[in-house]
Design goal:
The complex is a heterodimer of chains A (99) and B (128). With 99 residues, chain A is mainly α. Chain A contains 3 helices and no strands. Chain A: It is found in: Endomembrane system.
Chain lengths: 99, 128
């Protein structure tokens, strides 16, 4: 096999890019909280968005050792958790629109 | 579409059938999943941006409708991503063809229709 480290490395970078995309989404969802006249509803939504981003980051960190292993382990629960938290972001976005 | 729903919540079942494929194939499947998640996140970001940065459109509540449509689409993309990942993983373990999907075509057409609607509203505004 040529270059055995390439696949895990590419996958690690894919996780990182995805985390950056999620950070942009979380900031957009939290943005109403820094408007003048923001109330508890906006703060709660911003808190939920930041919590969601922290959860995604935790999942990515949890996945990292499996990629570093000499024989990388395939992802299991991390995939499901990541997808479901992304769906939660869509719901948080819906709350932002409803405000 | 969500036939493999139970598989998501029983990750161990996915690792008992068939044989373990070359880890590089599993990692490629994982990267495909992450690319779809980024697509979903981009749609969600688009919905949030619509709600926050667009001026109110000439048709009542159109801005909110577009935003909600983008958010729902983003959520669907994320659900479909995990479903497709589970199916592909299972197909690789069993040594059968990878699952085929109409979803990319449906998504592309939906986004295109949305873009046409937006262009229509802009023209309506310029010409009216």
């Amino acid at each position: 096999m040529r270059d055995p480290g390439a696949a895990p490395e590419r996958t690690r970078l894919a996780w990182r890019r995805t985390g950056m995309s999620a950070a942009a989404v979380a900031l957009l969802a939290g943005r109403p909280a820094v408007h003048p006249g923001a109330g508890p509803a906006e703060w709660l939504i911003a808190g939920a968005a930041m919590g969601g981003w922290a959860a995604l980051t935790a999942v990515a960190l949890h996945r990292a050792p499996g990629l570093r292993a000499r024989t990388p382990r395939p992802a299991g629960r991390a995939i499901r958790a990541y997808a479901l938290i992304t769906v939660a972001f869509a719901i948080i976005g819906g709350l932002v629109v409803m405000l | 579409m969500f036939g493999g729903l139970l598989q998501w919540f029983d990750p161990e079942s996915a690792h008992t059938e068939g044989t373990t494929p070359d880890y590089r194939f599993s990692l490629a499947n994982e990267r495909t999943f992450l690319a779809w998640i980024r697509t979903g996140l981009a749609l969600i970001a688009g919905g949030l941006a619509c709600a926050q940065f667009l001026p109110p459109l000439p048709i009542a509540r159109l801005r909110e409708i577009i935003a909600i449509a983008l958010l729902v689409l983003g959520g669907l993309v994320a659900l479909r991503a995990v479903d497709h990942w589970a199916r592909a993983e299972r197909a690789m373990r069993l040594g059968v063809d990878l699952p085929r999907s109409r979803f990319p075509a449906v998504l592309a057409i939906t986004v295109a229709i949305g873009a046409v609607v937006l262009v229509g509203t802009v023209l309506h505004r310029v010409l009216a």
